[in-house]
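Kindly inspect both lines:
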Amino acid sequence: MKSWKVSTEESGDLMKVLIVKTSSLGDIT
């Protein structure tokens, strides 16, 4: 669990990317 903080930060970034992708897809559709 040493990389717990890193994994959580990465997951947060992934969530941001997913939100951007979903929002862009929503604009396209």
The chain is about 85% helix and 0% strand. The chain has a mean pLDDT of 74. Helices lie at 4-28. Residues 15 and 21 are 10 Å apart (CA to CA).
